[in-house]
Design a protein that fits this description.
CATH architecture: 2-Layer Sandwich
Strand content: 25-35%
Strand order of the largest sheet: 1-2-3-4
CATH class: Alpha Beta
Number of domains: 1
């Protein structure tokens, strides 16, 4: 088993409960952790047996930038599902999405959602 983490990816997306959030968009920060079923990549040194960080970035970017959802849980679940399809040798994906611009009456750093999906 191996864990591959990509942290603090920055994307501009169109997600939120309010219509103006889905129209105007905003920044989202994303962390992804992929847990492989085995550590075959270390034995073979074959990229097909591992997890390519650039490919993960592209998959996450596609979901964040090309879909619109009201809930961050939905977005994170779509990211996980996409990554599990791309990497059948990954047994679990965890995605954390941080939304710094939240329409609340008070000072906060961000709203963060974490979703783990098993393949």
């Amino acid at each position: 088993m191996a864990k591959i983490r990509i942290r603090n990816m920055l994307f501009y997306g169109f997600h939120g409960i309010y219509e103006y959030e889905r129209e105007q968009g905003q920044k989202f920060f994303v962390d992804v952790e992929c847990v492989t079923r085995d550590n075959k990549a270390a034995e073979t040194d074959n990229p097909a047996d591992g997890v390519d960080g650039a490919a993960v970035y592209s998959a996450v970017r596609d979901v964040i930038e090309n879909t619109r959802s009201m809930l961050l849980q939905t977005v994170a679940t779509h990211v996980n599902e996409k990554l599990l399809k791309v990497y059948p040798h990954v047994g679990e994906v965890t995605t954390i999405i941080r939304k710094p611009s939240v329409p609340v009456q008070g000072a906060i750093d961000c709203v963060e959602v974490e979703v783990t999906t098993k393949g």
